[in-house]
Amino acid sequence: MKNNEMRCADALVVLLEKNGVKHVFGHPGEQILPFYDALRTSKVQHVLMRHEQGAAHAADGYARSSGSMGVCLATAGPGALNLTMGVATAYKDSVPLLVITGDVPRKLRGKNVFQDINTCKVLEPITLQTFDAKNPEEAINGLKIAFKIFENGLTGPIHLNLPKDVLEEPVDLTSIEEDLKEDVMENFNVMFPDEKAVSACVADAFELLESSKRPLILAGAGVIWAGAVSSLRNFAEKHGIPVATTYPARGVMPEDHPLCLGMMGTRGTEASNFAGKNCDTLLALGCRLSERTLHGIGKGKVIHVNTDDSVLKGDLNIHGNVSEFLEASSTLKIHDTDEWISRILEHPKDYPVQTDQNDVPLKPQRAVKEIMDASYDLNASGNLIMVNDAGTHTTWVTLLKKVKEPGTLLFSGGFGPMGYGVPAAVGAAFANPHKTVVVVVGDGGFQMTLQELATISQHNLKVVICIINNSSLGIIKQWQKLHYEGLYEVELENPDFLEIAKAYRIDSERVDSPGEVFKAVKRGFKEMPHLIEVIVDAEEGIPLPEVIK
């Protein structure tokens, strides 16, 4: 290799370093080994996950809890396909993820050799872009474009596929420093918002807002990715406009703030859904307006701002950056909203959940409330991140948790896969090493990705895992009871979770009575990582949401 050259794999890792990437989550395999060899001597820390699904969920948790891009890595064939659950999860919630996969050498592709499959075709429906590098130059440009896309506010997974022989070929050192050229961007079919078109739409939006007597802001996670949390709070306070949120955006306004109404939609607060159905103008910032959110929206005019033009559904659509929209609003004049806010606040912002039961078996809502209470001091000081898996416990966490800062309650709302919680906690712990991560997971979901206990143990992460054990797939069991002739394949014969934790060298305990959960969580904070199995009433259901048709 010449003095002015570098192996492509090394150049890609240098670009990761230059763009501030500190951690990547992955699992090695033959076709990605040149990349791993480059990581070996780099400043980027590789976190070895025990399954590629875990790697994608960890990168997702890293991104959601830090507001920065997450990176996951896998080899060709089965490694790449194992990422798909986590990639789809991030795609549904527009989480910025860089997904890097190895591939068989170019001359072998499409010839049905060992582990050869068209990875790009598989990942194409669940990524913003998938770049299939046919040479080192395309690999370098593909990575640069991925960073450019994230810088311009487009969020979601971006896939870079790298044949092994491409990774091993040399590149000129100047290619690392060069800026992207216009024709390269056009060849990769990357489109950013048109500033002139955005400006015209913004003027129309301001006219609509200034004529509104019952305005409402609906904030989505795009507010977080745009770095616009402070701007949103200032905008809402300056103009006295109440704020509702989607699930991923909970905390962009502290949920104890007078202007924050809580979450909108199928699990929305009464105040938030009343405001959504009765506002005359809804300013939807950085959200997808999913069917679950639309459940809380009435017939008012909708101004929809998003960097992803494919999700725009408003009466007035602005294909632009939330941060820039808010920055342009300094001259805006809004009608007095005191009467409107008073009407809204006649409706509760809290959920009516009874948690004072002293029954044995323990009610799951009581157990979750005790987890919240034990975490209160850490939460109040900003040193807590809670990760919520999918299952019956999810509802109780959603209804009982007060979120004061974004990125402190993690949950995959759009896809909702079981098994998200434990690996996502790994990512959150690496992104926030000084914070404590509490995972609330069901016995079913825990067993889908429990192998990541090895990663938690190896790195001695500050994680407390609370398994809410009802010995069943609770929500599915509840639906079967309501709509079908009998139960089928929803009862779980579980292993001894404490013995599993012991095998991974993690301290653990089992509790089953009111008051004991609180004490166990407090003990867990003193000896992390820690696992707590909470035995709860197997027959206690949840308030099921209205089915959306």
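the 2nd protein, sequnce then structure:
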Amino acid sequence: MHTVIAERVDSQRPRILRLYNLYRVILGFGLTLLTSAALREGVLSVSDANVYAKASWIYLFINVLIALSLHRGRRDLHMFVLAVLDIGLLGVIFYAAGGIGSGFGNLLIIPVAIGNVLLHGRIGLLLPALASLVLIYLTFFLSLTHPYSGQSYLQAGVLGAIYFAVAMFVQRVSRRLYLSEVLAREQAASLASMEQLNQLIIQRMRTGILVVADDHRIVTRNEACTQMLGGELSSGAKLEHASPELEQRLRQWQRNPSVRGTAFHSHSGGTELMANFKPLGETSKGSILIFLDDNTQVAQQAQQLKLASLGRLTASIAHEIRNPLGAISHAAQLLNESDLLSRQDLRLTEIIQQHSQRMNRVIETVLELSRRRPSEPQLVDLALWTSGFLQDFRAAHPLTDSIDCEIEKEGILTRIDPNQLTQVVSNLCQNALRYSGEPGSERTIYLRLYLHPDTQLPILEIIDRGPGVPSEHVGHIFEPFYTTENSGTGLGLYISRELCESNQARLECDSAQPRGCCMRITFAHPKRLV
């Protein structure tokens, strides 16, 4: 405890010393003025004018010298010597002024008090002891040399007791003040640390935080909000310029807070966002706190629940359907081997076998989907991964099937399961080849990897030169079991989208192409939480 107090005293010592030195210089000037008999007449009756004048001038000179040279002193020894010197010189002036009756004994209270502010512990109590001894000795000496000066030992004793009382009171008050200051500084440091921690947490949150003023000007935002809305969200900018869709939902909420807003896209190619609003303060015209949530994370959670339900369903399908389906297929094979069937009946058995095989493929695909392991996202360099995928693709396909690729730059990163990414892109490339022409003919597809200019999210596009997707089918191609081909299962694109959503990526179809179809994968930010 004493160490803490000493540290706080050391930090305040220069300021206290400046004030104390200023007081001593002013006191010195006052005492030297009284060396003039004309000014002293009627105010002070000295017993030895010569000693008083010398002591006053020495006191002033020493104080000015100390104020100019020792105002930076920090050691306790310096402070103790300074207080003792002050007590000694004031004691001489007390003697020359006539002793206890002059009232100059009260001047010793100040060095005793200041000394106990600057010093701590027992060393501070030496000062009132020295002041009391000086006072009593000089009173006794004056009573011997000036027997008719009216010296009072009672007044000297009372004044000495006052010295001790002041010293102990100042030490106690100083200790409390310093402890209060230490506590205040510790609390301020703790609050500053907590504020820094809160700022760090807010900046690292995946929920976008945006504060707007009552006039819809941006006050502050976190990093996630900047990534979601894209562009530069400078403080003081109008919200309608940064995100018109968010501005519209904010006005809807202000008109009717009970109505839940709909999801929106901050800009073309941006993620689907959901906004929630909370007023800051009790008045309706204060700042507004906006929470922005990425719906892809919600979709990922929903997709996990959907897969769990699908797993239970496919277990029942495997048990209840595959056995009868196997019996039907086996019976059709036996009928096909009979010599008694007509040509028309044989055609019917072939149809039974074809559709049995198709149903079996559907069941196998659904079972594979339900048994799919959870995604294991890792940091992937998409440019490097795409180069490796191209080599594997060209090695596994005939020369008539070609794939061209455009990579904007190296070092495009994301977090995704590379095995599931391979499954998705392979499926999309197979679809692109199928719609680009018949097997054996010249077929070319295009891959394009780049960063979105606003969100800086990685994007991979798979483009074919086929007939494209009719507008009436665009909204249904990702639905399970939806297909326009007799041989398809309608699960390829559905599984691809499910795999993307499990990695917080987004798969969409861009039919606004002059020719063919573009399947676009928008990947998650490489700093997203996994």
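Residues 359 and 526 are 40 Å apart (CA to CA). The chain has a mean pLDDT of 79.
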